[in-house]
Structure formats: structure tokens, C-alpha cells
Amino acid sequence: MNTMINIALPKGRLGEKVYALLESVGYGCEAMKESSRKLIFEDEQNGVRYFWVKPSDVAIYVEHGAADVGVVGKDILLEQQSDVYELLDLKFGVCKMAVAGKRDFHPNPAKVLKVATKFPHIASRYYASLSQEIEIIKLNGSIELAPILGMSDVIVDIVETGTTLKENDLVVLQDIVPISARFIANKASFKFKNEQIVCMQNRICAHLPD
Ligand code: PRP
């Protein structure tokens, strides 16, 4: 019997890249090519069912078993501390998590550092590892504005090309961790659909650059 593998893909450019990769290794789904607002697509012959989900929700679907596997940025896995298996580093969506601020920023040891970020857990863990007390200002986007407007001292954010920082006169002050897309699996699915998931993992792996 052909057991279906449920795959959560992040909506957007990363997801399309991942779908193209999966299609090239035998997990195509013709219906995915029709442009529509549908969120679920199934290809019985290839044994796959795809879900388009918000990128920050991929690991939640996988952790809860609604999807067996998925592709998600390491930034989201670190922020959500998702309880999933991380099977492959797909080596795309490459960027880094970093502390950034004004070029002339000098920390004042007498004051608590104000950190603006979309990633409060990553920022808290990073500064805890330095035994540094901080105040987190949680934002949802345009993080670079915070130090420019004097709302925070620094930001903890994704840096990909560095263009956003540059165009806003900010610089990387410290690197925290490299980030890239990861192929993840639900822990129970990995046990019960092991053959299919490992087969998919191996086929993807064979297609990745060294
Ligand atoms: C992300 C991130 C930076 C930018 C980094 O923002 O928060 O602002 O991309 O990319 P770069 O180094 O290539 O310039 P995103 O585009 O997700 O928008 P947001 O501000 O709404 O979070």
C-alpha cells in the first residue's frame, strides 16, 4: 500500500524552491501548478499530500503531526524550540542571525541593553550565554527602525545580503548563528512512516550540493 506523506511547505519563494526540488526527485503533484488559493494538494500516484502554510507555522504543523515532514528556516526552529527531527540542511535560504546597531554604538555597562527583535527567545538565550541583562522589545518587522529611532540600542535579526542594514546605516556588531532551510520530520511519523521518510531524505540528499 502507498502510504501518503504529508508535507508542509512554507508559502512563498522558499516553498516554491523546495517544491521544485521535491518534484525533481519524484514527488511531483500536477495540481500544484494551477494557480489557485487552495492550500492542500494531493498526488496519489507519488504518495504525497502538500500543505502550503505560513513559513513560521511549518514546524508547528510538523510537531503536531498534521504534517509528517516539512521545510523550515533554522531561525524558526531555534525561536520555537520545536520538538521535531532535523533531518537535512538543505543549504538554501542561507543567512545569519546577528546583533546589529549603529556603527558608533558603545554599550553602557551601567544600563540594561535594549534589544529589538522578532526573535525574543534567540535573543534572550544569546545574551543569557553572555550573562548580560537585557530588555527585549518584541517587534514584528522593520526591526531596523528601532535603533534608528532610539527605541532600542541594538537589534537581533536575520542578515542575508546585508542590504537592509547598509541602507539604514547600521552594521553587524556580533554574529550569533548561521541559518539555512532544514528538512524536518515529526517524531512519531519518522517511526511509523520510516521507510517513506528516509527514502525522501535520501533522494533529496543526493540532489544537494556537496
Ligand atoms: C528580513 C530581516 C531583515 C532583512 C534582511 O526582513 O528582518 O530586515 O530581511 O535581509 P538583507 O540582509 O538581504 O537585507 P523581511 O524581508 O522578512 O521583512 P520584515 O522587515 O517585515 O521582517
Order of helices and strands: EHEEHEHEEEHEHEHEEHH
Described by strand count, sense and barrel closure, the largest sheet is: 6 strands, mixed
Distance between the termini: 34 Å
> How many individual β-strands?
11
Oligomeric assembly: single chain
Helical stretch tally: 8
Radius of gyration from CA coordinates: 20 Å
Helix content: 25-40%
| Widest sheet, order of strands | 2-3-1-4-11-5
Pick out the low-confidence regions: none
* Strand residue content: 25-35%
What features would you describe in this structure?
With 210 residues, this protein is α/β, with parallel strands linked by helices. The protein is 30% helix and 31% strand. The chain has 8 helices and 11 strands. The protein has a 6-stranded mixed β-sheet. A hairpin with a 4-residue loop joins strand 2 and strand 3. Bound molecules: 1-O-pyrophosphono-5-O-phosphono-alpha-D-ribofuranose.
Brief description of this entry?
This protein is an alpha/beta fold.
Please specify the SSE layout and strand pairing.
Blueprint: E1 5-10, H1 13-24, E2 40-43, E3 48-53, H2 58-63, E4 69-73, H3 74-80, E5 85-89, E6 95-102, E7 113-117, H4 120-129, E8 134-138, H5 145-148, E9 154-159, H6 163-167, E10 170-179, E11 181-185, H7 187-192, H8 194-207
Parallel strand pairs: 1-3, 1-4, 7-8, 7-9
Antiparallel strand pairs: 2-3, 4-11, 5-11, 6-9, 6-10
The chain binds 1-O-pyrophosphono-5-O-phosphono-alpha-D-ribofuranose.
Residues 141-144, 157-164 line the site of 1-O-pyrophosphono-5-O-phosphono-alpha-D-ribofuranose.
